[in-house]
Amino acid sequence: MTPALDISHLRKVYRGGTVAVEDVSLTIQPGDFFGFLGPNGAGKSTTIHCITGISNPSSGTIKVFGVDAVANYREARKLVGLSPQEFNVDPFATARNIVDWMGGYFGMPKALRKARTEMLIERFDLVPHANKPFRELSGGLKRRVILARAMVHDPKLLILDEPTAGVDVELRMQLWGYLQELNRDGKTILLTSHYLEEIERLCRNIAIVAGGRIIRNGPKEEFFTEPGGLERAYLAATGKSADHVSAGAA
Length: 250
Prior knowledge:
9 helices; disordered C terminus; 250 residues; four-stranded antiparallel β-sheet
């Protein structure tokens, strides 16, 4: 079976000599819900940027469902939906337009684009808010719009970078429900999060990255074979103290 994502010896060095990713190798199978954990500056976002073409790898290979993400960027990018942590949208655009415009970016025919947009607006309970400017939406609604935008071209791999950051507990649980539904429908999901509970609840396999390297990688169950579970495994892998975890920097 062709992996959904196959990263081999990825290295990324920025101008000035900063090494953001040193040697990351990672394989995610189709249909998986994969958790990508690590402290700030560990290399998570840089890895995502390399997968999606925002940054070019210094060395190594990335394949999305067998398609080289560098040599065949456009084909690979169509297979990926990205929900970034930051709200990189026109704050004056409506929720409907934000989703629709992304479909246009991927070259979707107008009729298909409109149908997908309306389906996603309904699926994510955005109908009453579809024509409101993005800046007028609550944090939870904004997250739903960004998720719908990532889904408009029906990608095979969905990458979620801190999808519940800044969202209250009730809305976070609603978003969890949406993500679990998408995964049950067969969508492959790569999730980064600072919330250990989120990773525990949603993911089946987990990788911990620190210092630009994968420190630990395996099925979720393997992280619970010792007292302290995922939290202790995270601390052992990253060398953080318990205070960092309780402060939300896990």
